[in-house]
Amino acid sequence: METVALHTRLRAGREADYDRIHAEIPAELDVALREAGVHSWRIWRSGRELFHLVEVDDYAAMRSFLASHPANIPWQARMAELLEVEDDYSGAVPDVRKVWELPCTST
């Protein structure tokens, strides 16, 4: 399994819209994400900055699966209205890389 960090930015003034829309994603999108191998997808927001942490079997395969999925297309169109840069699904490699991690300790 892969853990992938992502960063996106909202358009100015769309913070409340983003929070409201993400309060409940469509059931068919939930199913599609799970079918694509997503185990967990968490999003934090600081102002307009969005930080995602995705646990997925294969990130590139997930993006390929979702690019043309009928549950994802309308969701991405909705997100395109809110995000500063629309995700066109052209890349399968995340642009956030891990720099440091506090190692787990065993007790």
From TrEMBL:
GO MF term (any one): racemase and epimerase activity, acting on carbohydrates and derivatives
Superkingdom as given in the UniProt entry: Bacteria
Name this protein carries in UniProt: L-rhamnose mutarotase
Protein source organism: Lentzea tibetensis
